[in-house]
Structure formats: C-alpha cells, structure tokens
Amino acid sequence: PQGSEQARAFVSAFLKRSMPRMRDEAIQDVLTRKAVVLEHHCKKTAKAKRRKAKGFTARQRRELRLFEIEPEQRRYTIFLPLHELWKQYIRDLCHGLKPDTQPHVIQSKLLKADLHGAIVTVTKSRCPSYVGITGIILQEFKHIFKIITKEDKLKVVPKQNNVFSLEIDGFISYIYGSKFQLRASERSAKKFKLKGTIDL
C-alpha cells in the first residue's frame, strides 16, 4: 500500500495531466472545496432488435397448397366424426339444447360459433344450381364455404346471395351469407345487430 505522501503525489500528477490548463493553486482549491468524481464512460452496446416471426403471404400459402384437401381425403364418411364433435361443441356452448331454450339465445351463440363440422343446406340462392347442396363444412373463408357432400364431392359455395340452414337437435337456424362475410376468427368478436327483414 502507498503512503500518504506518495498518494498525494500521484493524485497531483494525475490531475496535472488531466487538467493541463489549470494552475496548481486552482487544482488545490478544487481538491479542498469539491469532490472530484472520476467517471468512466462505457460505450453503449446496440441492443439486438427482436425480429417478429413472419407468417406466409397469401401467395406462398397458395403455392404451398396449405388449404387444399387431397382428392383421396375427400370422403364424406371421414368427416362424420368431425360433425359429431361439432354437435357436442354446440351443446356445450348453448348449455344443452332444451325445448324451453329461447331461440334468440341459441341464434346469438351460433352467430359466433365455429362452423367447421356443421351440416348445412343451401335453401335459397340467386343461382338455382346451388339450391339443395347439403354437406359438412370443411373450411370456412371470408367469402366461401367448402362443403363435402354425401356423394364425396367437394363443393365451393359462395356466401354472397345464398341462404344456408343448419339443424341440430330439432333446432333449425338460417345463415344469410351476404351478412356473414367474415372469417371465423373475426366473427367471434363481432357484435351482430338484430334486423327485421333480410333479403338475398
């Protein structure tokens, strides 16, 4: 350890090098009246920016054929268990479909429910060729339903200008496709308003 004299000599020599413009008297005055803080400025390291994982674009999804169902999988019987799961899901959602349940309560639940697995029928349409199509909904997009029929045919039915009906435990509900043009994820958060009359 250094003695007090050596320490004073070291400090004065250090201050002379650090503050060459100040005289010895001024340095001594600073030492007696103020505390000298020796600061060390460290270089700021740039923080690595977190990159958000980007999903596929619509073009990439089409090229990878992510949403296409293979022809050998287009069989009605394969998706019957999905329909049974959907019925149980709706029963749980509506707390049991009892005869005394108010229709508007079930209707409001179905408006926000996931329809994948539901059996629907096109009851009205501006295009007569769509009327009567019945099957299980395999995929729901913003503007279309993809339906597998009992004849193992995959039908792409637009929502626009079509009315669909679905039946569960004796309760029949109608879907006006023109007012239903939302993705399933968006529909669950949407507030639907009651309307008196709805046209195609």
TrEMBL record:
Gene from which this protein is expressed: Pop4
Entry-linked SUPFAM superfamilies: Rof/RNase P subunit-like
GO cellular component, one term: ribonuclease MRP complex
GO molecular function: ribonuclease P RNA binding
Chief place where the protein resides: nucleus
Keywords associated with the record: Nucleus, Phosphoprotein, tRNA processing
Described function: Component of ribonuclease P, a ribonucleoprotein complex that generates mature tRNA molecules by cleaving their 5'-ends.
Family in the record: Belongs to the eukaryotic/archaeal RNase P protein component 1 family.
Keyword Repressor recorded: no
Protein's cellular compartments: Nucleus, Nucleolus
GO biological process entries: rRNA processing; tRNA 5'-leader removal
Name of protein: Ribonuclease P protein subunit p29
PANTHER family, per the entry: RIBONUCLEASE P PROTEIN SUBUNIT P29 (PTHR13348:SF0), RIBONUCLEASE P SUBUNIT P29 (PTHR13348)
Quaternary state and interactors: Component of nuclear RNase P and RNase MRP ribonucleoproteins. RNase P consists of a catalytic RNA moiety and 10 different protein chains; POP1, POP4, POP5, POP7, RPP14, RPP21, RPP25, RPP30, RPP38 and RPP40. Within the RNase P complex, POP1, POP7 and RPP25 form the 'finger' subcomplex, POP5, RPP14, RPP40 and homodimeric RPP30 form the 'palm' subcomplex, and RPP21, POP4 and RPP38 form the 'wrist' subcomplex. All subunits of the RNase P complex interact with the catalytic RNA. Several subunits of RNase P are also part of the RNase MRP complex.
Recorded superkingdom: Eukaryota
Organism: Centropus unirufus
